[in-house]
TrEMBL record:
<feature type="transmembrane region" description="Helical">
    <location>
        <begin position="35"/>
        <end position="56"/>
    </location>
</feature>
<comment type="similarity">
    <text>Belongs to the 1-acyl-sn-glycerol-3-phosphate acyltransferase family.</text>
</comment>
<comment type="pathway">
    <text>Phospholipid metabolism; CDP-diacylglycerol biosynthesis; CDP-diacylglycerol from sn-glycerol 3-phosphate: step 2/3.</text>
</comment>
<dbReference type="GO" id="GO:0006654">
    <property type="term" value="P:phosphatidic acid biosynthetic process"/>
</dbReference>
<dbReference type="GO" id="GO:0016020">
    <property type="term" value="C:membrane"/>
</dbReference>
<keyword id="KW-0012">Acyltransferase</keyword>
<keyword id="KW-1133">Transmembrane helix</keyword>
<dbReference type="Pfam" id="PF01553">
    <property type="entry name" value="Acyltransferase"/>
</dbReference>
<feature type="transmembrane region" description="Helical">
    <location>
        <begin position="125"/>
        <end position="143"/>
    </location>
</feature>
<protein>
    <recommendedName>
        <fullName>1-acyl-sn-glycerol-3-phosphate acyltransferase</fullName>
        <ecNumber>2.3.1.51</ecNumber>
    </recommendedName>
</protein>
<dbReference type="GO" id="GO:0005783">
    <property type="term" value="C:endoplasmic reticulum"/>
</dbReference>
<keyword id="KW-0812">Transmembrane</keyword>
<keyword id="KW-0443">Lipid metabolism</keyword>
<keyword id="KW-1208">Phospholipid metabolism</keyword>
<keyword id="KW-0444">Lipid biosynthesis</keyword>
<keyword id="KW-0808">Transferase</keyword>
<feature type="domain" description="Phospholipid/glycerol acyltransferase">
    <location>
        <begin position="94"/>
        <end position="209"/>
    </location>
</feature>
Length: 272
């Protein structure tokens, strides 16, 4: 009986191996399917642990989630090369902004996530099965992207509470996934919060995934991701009139860093 199960297991693995070799599209679908399955399964197993250890929705659960998600990279042959972690060591709360390329970003996020840090997420993720449950338990802040008024109200609450609760807040200022090797224009929500709360902005940049992951060409292989945590940008004394400048400054610094980390000539060098 046990030998029978082993043979079936081996046959399934062999079949998957053959299917993945057949076409990039099958390989891509199977790998993304496996990633989603892993997220759903790990969330289902981790949620009771979070509830038992911390009793409910709290940022403390992020430590448990982080430990679990950090193991995922081994399944996909991904390596992270991280620089600048010391820039997270600012006293008290801060806004962290980073580029957002894919659902795979959860691995890069958890690789460097500082303690007491929650993310801002679209509210639809709350309904992503067990993943929604674990995100809820981790204290993630949900916004309704379809209503600017609602989103702004939630962001204003975040600005008020982050200092009292001493949490860092991680925002993806592009507001959506973008796997083109460049940045989308930044939305200003993160920078409004930083100015309202008078807390620093810490930019984080992940190198482009396009050499190993590209949904358009169905590419998904193993690869290395360079990550750089940049020095904090102070906002003390800034007012709402300065938000546009702050956003631009952050955008240009992050774009330069993205191009450098991805081995792509920067715009200024190209034109000279
Ligand atoms: C154990 C196994 C686990 C398995 C799973 C693994 C890990 C999971 C665990 C945890 C991790 C969860 C992480 C989830 C990440 C999910 C990421 C996302 O969902 S990204 C999408 C959501 N995020 C965002 O959209 C953030 C960026 N967007 C913004 O900041 C936007 O500005 C906005 C606040 C949403 C509003 O957007 P909208 O398009 O409606 O409007 P505009 O941006 O055009 O702004 C209009 C206008 O208003 C001004 N504005 C904006 N915000 C504010 C503010 N807070 N206060 C005042 N004014 C504001 C803005 O400047 C514009 O005015 P103007 O044009 O004059 O400048
Ligand atoms: C009973 C309901 C079953 C629901 C099944 C859900 C299946 C999907 C489950 C797991 C997939 C892994 C998700 C990991 C979390 C990824 C977070 C993320 O990266 O969200 C994208 C969001 O930032 C921006 O969204 P858009 O680019 O604007 O779109």
């Amino acid at each position: 009986m046990e030998l029978g199960w082993l043979l079936w297991g081996a046959a399934v693995l062999l079949l998957l191996h053959v299917l993945m070799g057949l076409s990039p599209a099958v390989n891509f679908a199977l790998r993304i399917g496996f990633y989603s399955f892993l997220c759903l399964l790990a969330s289902a197993l981790t949620a009771p642990v979070c509830l038992l250890v911390n009793g409910g929705r709290t940022v403390k659960n992020m430590r448990i989630i982080r430990a679990v998600v950090r193991t995922f990279k081994y399944f996909f042959g991904l390596r992270f090369e991280v620089k600048g972690l010391e820039n997270f060591k600012v006293e008290g709360p801060a806004i962290i902004v980073s580029n957002h390329q894919s659902i795979l970003d959860m691995m890069g996020l958890m690789e460097i996530l500082p303690d007491n840090c929650v993310q801002v997420a679209k509210k639809e993720l709350m309904y992503a099965g067990t993943v929604g449950l674990i995100i809820y338990l981790g204290g993630v802040i949900f916004i309704n992207r379809k209503s600017t008024t609602d989103a702004k109200m939630v962001m204003a609450e975040v600005a008020k509470s982050m200092t009292a609760d001493n949490v860092k807040v991680w925002v993806y200022p592009e507001g959506t996934r973008n796997c083109t090797g460049d940045l989308l224009p930044f939305k200003k929500g993160a920078f409004h919060i930083a100015v309202q709360a008078q807390v620093p902005v810490i930019p984080v940049v992940y190198s482009s995934f396009t050499s190993f992951y590209n949904p358009k060409t169905k590419l998904f292989t193993s690869g290395k991701i360079k990550v750089e945590v940049l020095p904090p940008i102070e906002t003390k004394g800034l007012t709402s009139d300065d938000v546009s400048d702050l956003t631009d400054r952050c955008f240009h610094t992050m774009r330069e860093t993205l191009f450098r980390l991805s081995g792509r000539p920067s715009e200024s060098k190209k034109s000279s």
